[in-house]
Amino acid sequence: MVEISSDVIRGYNDTMILFNLMEGPSYGYEISKQIKNLTDGKYVIKETTLYSAFTRMEKNGYVESYVVEPGEGGGGKRRTYYRITEEGQRYYREKCEEWLVTKEVVEHFIRNEQ
User: Is pLDDT of 35 > 80?
Assistant: First the structure.
């Protein structure tokens, strides 16, 4: 199995995180697990990458965070949850459009020789 270089995917970490938050609020570990599952294990987001993305996106107004204390959400420990904002939804749509153009451009340079 070919592993995806973190350099290649870096610009789309936000897109993957926001995709998960479009379904509803979630927390870091659950989002990283979803990314791994949705990519069939081809991409595992590093914890430092995930949390620096949360910090950046919160600063830019794309997500909001809130803390859920033990017992409130059914969990056994305190968790920071994130939810997407309206601005985050706009940013997600922009990144999706950008990806379509990026993919179209790069495909001109890919030889599918097997």
Answer: yes
